[in-house]
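Schema walkthrough. Field components (list of strings):
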Amino acid sequence: MSKPKVAIFKFSSCSGCQLVFLNCEEELLDIAEVVDIAYFVEGKRDNKPGPYDIGFVEGAISCPEEVSRIKEIREQCQTLVAIGSCAIHGGLQALKNWKSLEWVKREVYPQPELVSTLEWAQGIDDYVPVDAYLPGCPIDKGQLLEFIKSVLLGRTPNLRRHSVCMECKMKENVYVLVAGDVPCMGPVTVAGCGALCPSYGRGCYGCFGPMDDPNPEFLARIFEKKGLSNEDIVRQFRKITPNAEAFRRGAGIYE
Amino acid sequence: MSERQIKVDYIARVEGEGALDIRISDGEILDLKLKIWEPPRFFQSFLVGRRFDEVPDMTARICGICPVSYMMTSIEAIEDAFGITVSQQTRDLRRLLALSQWIQSHTLHVYMLAAPDFLGYESVIAMVSDYPEVVKRALRMKKLGNDLTRVIGGREINPVNPVVKGFSRVSAKSELWGFIDRLKEGKEDALETVRLVSSLPIPDFNRKAEHLAVSHESEYGVNYGKLVSTGGLNISVKDYRKYIKERQVPHSNTLHSYIEGRDSFLVGPLARVNVNFDQLSPDAQKAVRESGISFPNFNPFVSIVARAIELVHSMDECLEIIERLDPKDEDVRFEVKAGEGWAATEAPRGLLYHSYKINSEGIIEKADIVAPTSHNLYSMENDLWQFVPTVLDLPLEEATLKCEMIVRNYDPCISCSCHFLKLNIRRE
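Field assembly_structure (string):
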C-alpha cells in the first residue's frame, strides 16, 4: 500500500490543534514513515499540491476568503476531517455572532473599514460536507493517533461520543456539580479530555463541544436550581463552542 | 531598467498566515509590506461582558503555542485589578509553568522551524535521515517542556489549572521530583543546542533597533517586572499605554506597535538576553562565552542563539525551583471588586501586555491585549527595509529564503498577533 498523502490546513484559529501533530513527540517519526505529510505550512517549506487522501482542517470560517478556500480544499481531499472546536462548531470566535459586527470591529481596529470579516464565524460543515470530526480544544493526541491508525487499517475509528461524565466516573472523581455546587458542563459535553477540569476540582467548561444527543435544556434548569443567574447560564453554554446547536439551545431558553 | 520580483505565497514554518510584498527597481525598494491576512478574531471585543474567571480560559485560545502566557498575563492583570498579592509558592509554580512553555516553544522554533533553513532542509522531518540524533534530541526536549507544563497546568495546550490567586490543585512534590533527572539530561541537551546553533552560518547583519523586555531586580524577567529597553525606557507596566502606541496599516490585520516619539522596537529572546544578561544562570553565561558570540547583540539572526541560551537558563531554573519547592494547599479565596489592572509577561516570543477594567460584579468592561508578534511586526518590516538591499545580488531563490529567515528570526506567531504570513517579493 502506498503512503496516504496527508494535508493539514489552517483557518481562523490559534494553531493549537495542528500543534498536536508536532506534539506527538514519541510518535512523529513513526507517523512520517507511514503517511506522506505533503502539505503542512506550519511545519514545512516544500508544500506539495493536491489531490490529497486526507485533509485535516483546523479553524473556523470567519472571513469571505475562507469560504472559497474551504470549497477548493474539499475538492482536493478524498477524506476531509474537521479537527477541533473551531473547525467543527466555529470555536470561540463565534462569540462575535451575538454582537453587532460594526461594534466588534470598532472595538479592536481604529479603521474598521479596512477589515474583511463575515458576520458569523462557523464550522466548516456549514459550507462543505465533512467526513469525520475530531473534537477538542485542542484535539486529544490519543484520538488523533487512533484516527490515523484506523485509516491505515481501513477500520472505523473508536472515538468516544458519550459525555465527559463517563470519564469522570472511570476516574472516580467527586461530582463537582452535586458535591461542590460548581456549575459543570460535563453532562452535555463530549468526552475525550479525560474529564480534565473535574479532576482538578473545577467544572467542565464544555471546550470539546456537545456529545451525541445531549439534553442541554435539563442541565440549564439544574443550573437555575443551583442559583445561577440567567446571564451566568447563558455564559456557561456560550463560551468555547457557542455556535454548537445543542449549546445554542441551552443558552436560548435563558436569554 | 532592471525590474525584478521575488514571490513566496505562504511563509512556511511560522504559526499563522501572512505575506510579504517587496517591489524592487534598479536596486531600490519601491514598496515593502508585510501583509498579515490571518483573519481577525476580535478577542478584545467578545471578552467584554464575560466574568473575570472565564477570561484566562478564553485568552489561552488566542495562541496554541503559548497559551500559558496568555492565561498567566490575564490572571496577573485581574489580580492587579482586585489588589491580590500571591504567595511565593504561587510565584514559583507560575515561573516553573512559564519556563516549561519556553522549553517547549524554543525547542519547537530552534529545531523544527528555524534550523532547517540554516542546514539546508525543507523541514525537520527531512533532516531525520542525516541528523537522527539531532532530531531525537529536539523531540526529547520538547516532550520534557510539554510534560512539565501538563503536570503543573493540567494540559500542555490550554491548561486548566491556573486560576486567579493560585492553582485549582497544587502539584505534589512527588509529581515535580520526577523531573529532576530529565531536567539534568535536558540541561546537557540545551548545552548541545547552544553548540549546534553557534556553529551555524549566521548571516552578518546589524540593525541598531531598540530592544524591550520585562526586567526584574532579583530574577531573569519572566512573569513580573518593569519594562526596560536598550534605548533607555524604564517604565511600570501600568504606564504601557502612555509610551507604547499602535497604528493600523491598510495591508495588515495586525496593528503596528511603536514607542511614542521614537520608532519600532524588538521583543523576544534576543531582547531579553540583551536587557537581562547579568541575570542568566552562571552556566547559561558560560555557554555564551564558549559560543564566541557577544552580547549585547543587534543581529536579529542571533535570535536563534538567544533562544538556545534561554533553554540552558530555563533548565537550570526549573531544577533550582523544583529542588526547593514543597508545595502545600493554599487559600485561594479573594474579594471581587471593581477596578482596573495591568500585567506584562515574557511569552516565548516576547512581551505580552494585558489590561482589564472590571466592574463590581466581576464583569469585564474593557479588555486590551497586545501580543508579542504585534510588538514585533513593525520591527520585522524595518529589518527587511535594511536587509533586502544586501541580498539583491543573490539568485532569486536564495534571496527569498533569506528574507523568509528575517521573518522567522522573530518566531512570529501570527495567530496571536491577529491572528498569516505570505511572502511576495517582486523585483520590477
